[in-house]
Amino acid sequence: MSRFADRIALVTGAASGIGLATARGLADGGATVFLADRDVEALKAARESLAGAPHEAIPLDVTDEQGWVALAERIRARFGKLDILVNNAGFGKFAAITDTTLDQWRSIIAVNLDSVFLGTKHMMPLLAASGCGAIVNMSSIRGIVAGANTGSYSAAKGGVRMFTKVTALECAAAGNGVRANSVHPGHIATPLTAPAYADPEIAKALLADVPLGRIGQADEVADAILFLASDESRYMTGAELVIDGGTTAQ
Ligand code: NAI
Predict the structure, then answer these.
(1) pLDDT band at 1, cuts 50/70/90?
(2) Which residue, of 103, 122, 171, 188, has the fewest CB within 10 Å?
(3) Where is the Ketoreductase domain (predicted)?
């Protein structure tokens, strides 16, 4: 219970998959959790699964700067600080570069990368007020190794990886006590990936890519996020944690 006692946490994309597993883990550890997501119906269901733990569900499109400003003001007015920010919301659409429109490119960059910039910028004063603020940004193995037909997604997730390191350096230079690290999951079973994994051909190809021989689970990524959000990782900043069953070790 004490791991996150008295901590205020915000998780984006918290209504589903890895974000929901992370929000649950934070709540189980004693944190007060803000669950932010643009899917209002899914947020309602997520709230039920956190019944009994202090939490708030916030409809937020992470690409909307005014939404971030309003949420920061709400957290400031209630708690005056934020201890943990998990920039998790995102999704991918996969196509060859020559088949990708500029609008499609921009929408992937906006949800996966602009969101991390906006969250970091607008939550930073509250994270600094914590004294032990922790930012965990969701990248992907696609932020480290490329794959054909992942142009906009890989560009966004690679951007998240480097942006996290810049954040870590700026916070260290400011001496504000905020750490920033990124996580890089491989093939993880969530509502985002379920349709692809339901195709036996795709599932077979993906499994062939995983030395541990199985697809990962949302809580296995959440465990890594919780570690980076906790004091157990107090000497880690600007680092990247890969959770991929060995895929990128090959
Ligand atoms: P998911 O689809 O289960 O959950 C993502 C959540 O983000 C959803 O609730 C969705 O409503 C929300 N979301 C999407 N766009 C949003 C926006 N503009 N504003 C607010 N909320 C928004 O997906 P999953 O798998 O849990 O993915 C979470 C993160 O993990 C994503 O950033 C994804 O790119 C990343 N990731 C996932 C992997 C996987 O294999 N599932 C592998 C590597 C990274």
Answers:
(1) low
(2) 103
(3) 7-188
- The range of the structural domain enclosing residue 127 comes to 8-243
What gap in Å lies between CA 225 and CA 137, rounded to an integer? 9
Q: Which one of 37, 152, 242 would you pick to mutate in the ligand 1 pocket, going by the greatest count of ligand atoms within 8 A of its CB? A: 37
The tokens of 214 are what? Answer: 């199985």
* pTM across the whole model: 0.98
> Does 114 reside within a domain?
yes
Give the CATH number for residue 168: 3.40.50.720
In a domain, 42, yes or no: yes
Nearest CA to 180 among 91, 119, 221? 119
Active-site residue, from 4, 68, 153, 163: 153
Kindly give the interhelix angle for 102-109 and 151-174, rounded to the nearest 10 degrees.
30
Contacts of 27 (CB under 8 A, 6+ apart): 33, 50, 53, 54, 55
Closest ligand 1 atom number to CA of residue 39: 11
Does 19 sit in the ligand 1 pocket, CB within 6 Å?
Answer: yes
Residue with tokens 């990936």: 193
What pLDDT is recorded for position 232?
98
Number of the ligand 1 atom closest to the C-alpha atom of 61: 19
In a domain, 235, yes or no: yes
The arithmetic mean of pLDDT across residues 219-244, rounded, is 98
Average pLDDT over residues 182-210: 94
Do the domain assignments include residue 98? yes
Number of structural domains (the chain) is 1
Confidence of residue 167 (pLDDT cuts 50, 70, 90): very high
